[in-house]
UniProtKB/TrEMBL annotation:
One of its GO terms (molecular function) is ATP hydrolysis activity. SMART domains: AAA. PANTHER family: AAA+ ATPASE DOMAIN-CONTAINING PROTEIN (PTHR46411:SF2), FAMILY ATPASE, PUTATIVE-RELATED (PTHR46411). Residues 451-583 form the AAA+ ATPase domain. Residues 341-381 are annotated as: Disordered. This is ATPase family associated with various cellular activities (AAA). Residues 362-374 have a biased composition (Gly residues). Residues 341-350 have a biased composition (Basic and acidic residues). It comes from the Bacteria.
Amino acid sequence: MNGAALMREAVLLGAACHLAGPADQVPAADAGWTARPGDRAELRDRMRDHERSDDPARVRLCDELGLPPQNYWLVMLCAAVERYPEAAAAVSLLAEDSRQQLPTPVVVARLLRGLLEVPFGEALAGALNGGQAHWLGLVEVIESAPGTPHSQHALRLVHTELVVAQDDPSALGGHPDLLVSTVRPAAATAFDVVRVRHGAYLLEHRGLLVLRGASRRGGRQFGCDLATHLGLPANLVTADEQLPPIAGLARLRGGLLVLDLHRLPTVTQSALARLGAVRGRLVVLVDEATDTGDLATYDVGSIGYPEASRVWAEHFGVDTARALAARFRVNTEEARIAVRDADDMRRATDPDPADPAAEGSAGPGNPTGPGNPTGAGNPAAADDVLADRIRALGARRMSRYVSTLPTSARLSDLVVPDELRRQLDEIVSWHRSSHRVAWAMDHERTDPLGTGLTCLFAGKSGTGKTFAARCLASELGLNLYRIDLSQVVSKYIGETEKALGQVFDEVEAGHGLLLFDEADALFGRRSEVKDAHDRYANIEAGYLLQRLESYDGVAILTTNLQGNIDGAFVRRLRFVLQFPAPDRDLRRALWERSLPGPQWRDDDLAIEVLADRFQLSGGAIHNIGLAAVHLAAATESGRVTAAHVVRATARELQKAGRPADAAAFGPLAGLVNGHRRPR
């Protein structure tokens, strides 16, 4: 018999014993009942046996959640009145109030005193305000009427537990209202095993361990490594806006609880101290700026090439794992999701019934199965599908602070001077060899500028700076993320740094290139401090300097006015590329690329004349080509003619406030102002 059914019997028996007492006397609270001693003894024995049983609800609430027996019976009584109407009626008799059909601390104390012989004062103290059952979020306290004592406040199952009590009382306490991501133990830790062992020692002896660092990804991986070291799954709970209820956290069992607080604006020492009340071991992840006081704290860095190699080694051979680690610095969570998705896409595209990986389940000891393809020779290993999955996952995780730009163009599509092209090729080579310099040659890690690749593209509007960033991202196989300055720069103190920290950490995983378009807004010269606004603006600029030094990814800054960029930023740049206005030869090449192929244009479009007469930027020439194609598409033939190009050019010149009359076009004057209309 389950606990709720036993409490139904108990409350019915208790009501009968209570009514059997003298009606003209008020018995002492600790006197108990004298009626029906045999029935009470028999029920007491069954209740004591139940306290030692393997009933699922009792095991869950008492053994796993640590609920004392008295509070367990309180919860069972609350479940009984919801499940059995006669139990609710009996409660009103014990409460001596026909309007009160929910248990009160006094009712609970009378039952425990009369049936289990628990002293009334002890039982009442354990039931006030719902006791530990309320702290664990199982019951709520309702003040029946203003001015009533706490001992007369009604106790009721919370709504989420009410549904469970009706359907399956054995599942009580098994449904915390939290979104939990469970990561099974890996074959080996990603971070150095000595550091993980040290963290595990602190966790075992202090119970609460705070992991502090700028990288949320690194903190989550270290939490998973601690769980792997302890032979447990990691239960990762992410707080998005506020600290989750301690009651819900306390009810999580079956693994190492890792609470991610990185996204919270602030985390106070008092909040961290309250988390220490959670029973069992708890790992908390916070930002590097959080003051943790005297709590056990361990500083954790970002995931580098060695850590990423160990993460990928769970799924692939050594060579493939190293190749992937050179591109993608992801943690165990992300790698498993990407491999699983890539495997699913491969099977959906080319199902192979004979594929041994289609059977069984993946795991640290089983190198086959969904989400765990084997070796470098596996069709799912390190191919374009896997890279696409990693980039897609990364793009979905990016917050509102960035927009993802298409990156199909390659460097071969960029029309720039030869020297500038060589510098762009050097950027590609630098990025592809950075892991070798840092970890094989052991050189870059001591660089005072950090291990990232930050570049400045300077030049007038339309000279190809943003397009060059697109080409670079495509050449490197990365997403291109453009910072949305309107979302990043906040009027609230500290919010700008928090937003930038999230963006930097996400892009460092290796799936994206970070673009600060028109970077003057964030990287401008710091001002003289005249008021509080200036002081906090300088603090934000200082944070950017610090974050760029530790940044381990690729960042491109574009500006029309290099002189407006703070000199301290310029000194921290790996490359400074000047994008000049195109000369005649480059303009001619740009004209050719902006117009469609021979089958869709006339033989003579006067490109030479246009390249000679108009010193236009690449962006302006692209706009002209696009407009000319639209003009041609509206005609019967659809072919671009010189008249289309001239009309589109005149429109672009007018936008820029430049002369666009017939005299400006020289030999092409006859095509201006409708003298010869396009066919």
